[in-house]
User: Which sequence fits this backbone?
């Protein structure tokens, strides 16, 4: 049967729109629409070993428990000689450049016998699931195989049968949903799986593709369970972990069988504040042979801590599981007291090679970004400091104020600060700050003892760098801001007490600051600061009243 450029609508329980049935039957449906509106209805149905080709079709199944595409074999497969010596009874279905949508059921339902489905450029959506494999009441599923290229599948993929099920995603295909008991799942050629909850599969193979765990919600973190073997070929797993101590909540990959190949692991911090670990946060559990290599992609950071991926726990280093730990082994530095060398150094090695070492409790690994924050804070505090000598320079210049009868008088200064300090014995931080400050005396009063008062403003710019020799990571920072203030000074009479004065100033500043670490997004924030200072004679006291970002 061949149908093209048609609109097919069926209503009624168990009805079918485009139905092909029988051992050697074939059907072609092109550039058409199919609406199945009855409970348990089917948009396209392939039954009892048929071939169906559909292209450019839009199939909508709206009945409760309906299916946009149903493939079934209700009777045991015919013997090969009954339909040809080299042919096995099975449904063969190809769908391209089409839509399969079930608003109240399953988009693709494979029931009993043998079925292969090829999808190319198809959008598959099902409210009660995108794909379901199951046994027929009169015939168990032998196998159901679905291959998808450049296809989007929205909904869960489940297998309730006793047979074998497989789903192959290739060529930019995208799965959005959970899996349950699917025997084999493969992703290749830039395909992607966005999990929506706990999932389990038999064998899992990921090649040049990625699996992304869902953002933790009310149900907490998710686990992907592989009851068979896992293989990665430039694969990517993106997990959410609350980066803190050993008991941190985290997504997890649990492989009951063996692992092989290479997989990149991306860790997204789920609200953790960072903490020192001991055994570590277990993110990958391997019950069988742990031959696969998992490599941390990017950085895993929280608070002041940097986390790294380690194979094996501290208490069971050969268990084959993978952990995130925030630590630095002191014995990485040769000659550290209390460290033993394992294996021993072989003297003939030239040039010498430092072997792996086992030693005392490690220190936490600090990320370089906190050093950048501290340096920017120091530049902010420096920009808020002010004294009478910043305005007048040499003390003898105050005589010009006493002899002047003009209330005005402007002044300006340029200041550059360069700072360097270490943090925690791990971070080396350097900073440079530039400030241009101008002011003007607005009020002048008195003759013997006299006073002046005025206003001032500053433009501030700075840059910082923080580097960790331990990890090799760097963080840079920058700041720009403006500071406005007022000041007043009372000079005592030279006849009573030469050189005596009281000076007061108040300033308020606003700053825009940014910190950018290697492989991290820039963090931008604003800071406000207020400073009040009082000084008398040659002794001064400053107080930072408030500083918040």
Assistant:
């Amino acid at each position: 049967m061949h149908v093209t450029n048609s609109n097919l609508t069926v209503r009624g329980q168990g009805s079918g729109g485009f139905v092909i049935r029988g051992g050697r039957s074939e059907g072609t449906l092109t550039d058409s629409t199919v609406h199945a509106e009855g409970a348990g209805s089917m948009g396209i149905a392939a039954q009892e070993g048929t071939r169906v080709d559909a292209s450019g079709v839009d199939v909508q199944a709206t009945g409760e428990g309906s299916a946009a595409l149903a493939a079934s074999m209700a009777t045991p497969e015919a013997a090969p000689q009954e339909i040809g010596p080299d042919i096995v009874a099975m449904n063969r279905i190809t769908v391209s450049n089409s839509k399969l949508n079930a608003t109240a059921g399953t988009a693709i339902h494979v029931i009993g016998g043998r079925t292969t489905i090829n999808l190319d450029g198809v959008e598959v959506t099902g409210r009660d699931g995108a794909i379901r494999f199951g046994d027929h009441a009169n015939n168990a599923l032998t196998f159901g195989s679905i291959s998808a290229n450049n296809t989007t599948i929205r909904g869960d993929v489940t297998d309730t049968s006793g047979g074998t099920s497989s789903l192959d995603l290739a060529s930019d295909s995208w799965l959005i949903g959970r899996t349950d008991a699917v025997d084999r799942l493969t992703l290749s050629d830039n395909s992607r799986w966005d999990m929506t909850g706990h999932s389990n599969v038999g064998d899992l193979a990921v090649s040049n593709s990625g699996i992304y765990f869902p953002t933790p919600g009310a149900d907490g973190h998710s686990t992907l369970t592989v009851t068979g073997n896992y293989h990665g070929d430039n694969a990517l797993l993106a997990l959410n972990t609350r980066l803190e101590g050993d008991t941190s909540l985290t997504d997890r990959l649990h492989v009951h069988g063996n692992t092989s190949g290479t997989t990149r692991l991306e860790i997204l911090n789920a609200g953790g504040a960072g903490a020192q670990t001991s055994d570590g946060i277990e993110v990958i559990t391997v019950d069988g042979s742990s031959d696969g290599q998992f490599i941390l992609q990017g950085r895993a950071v929280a608070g002041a801590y940097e986390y790294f991926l380690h194979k094996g726990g501290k208490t069971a280093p050969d268990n084959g599981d993978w952990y995130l730990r925030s630590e630095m082994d002191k014995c990485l530095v040769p000659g550290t007291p209390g460290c033993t060398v394992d294996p021993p150094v072989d003297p003939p090695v030239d040039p010498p090679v430092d072997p792996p070492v086992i030693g005392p409790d490690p220190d936490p690994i600090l990320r370089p970004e906190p050093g950048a924050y501290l340096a920017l804070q120091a530049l902010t505090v420096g920009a808020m400091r002010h004294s009478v000598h910043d305005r007048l320079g040499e003390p003898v210049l105050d005589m010009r104020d006493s002899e002047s009868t003009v209330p005005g008088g402007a002044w300006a200064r340029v200041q550059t600060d360069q700072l360097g300090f270490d943090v925690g014995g791990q971070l080396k931080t350097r900073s440079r700050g530039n400030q241009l400050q101008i002011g003007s005396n607005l009020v002048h009063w008195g003759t013997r003892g006299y006073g002046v008062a005025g206003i001032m403003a500053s433009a501030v710019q700075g840059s910082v760098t923080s580097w960790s020799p331990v990890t090799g990571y760097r963080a840079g920072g920058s700041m720009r801001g403006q500071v406005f203030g007022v000041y007043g000074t009372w000079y005592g009479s030279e006849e009573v007490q030469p050189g005596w004065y009281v000076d007061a100033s108040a300033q308020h500043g606003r700053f825009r600051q940014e910190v950018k670490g290697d492989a991290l997004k820039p963090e931008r924030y604003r800071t406000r600061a207020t400073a009040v200072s009082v000084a008398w004679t040659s002794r001064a006291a400053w107080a930072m009243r408030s500083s918040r970002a």
Notes: The CA atoms of residues 68 and 529 lie 64 Å apart.
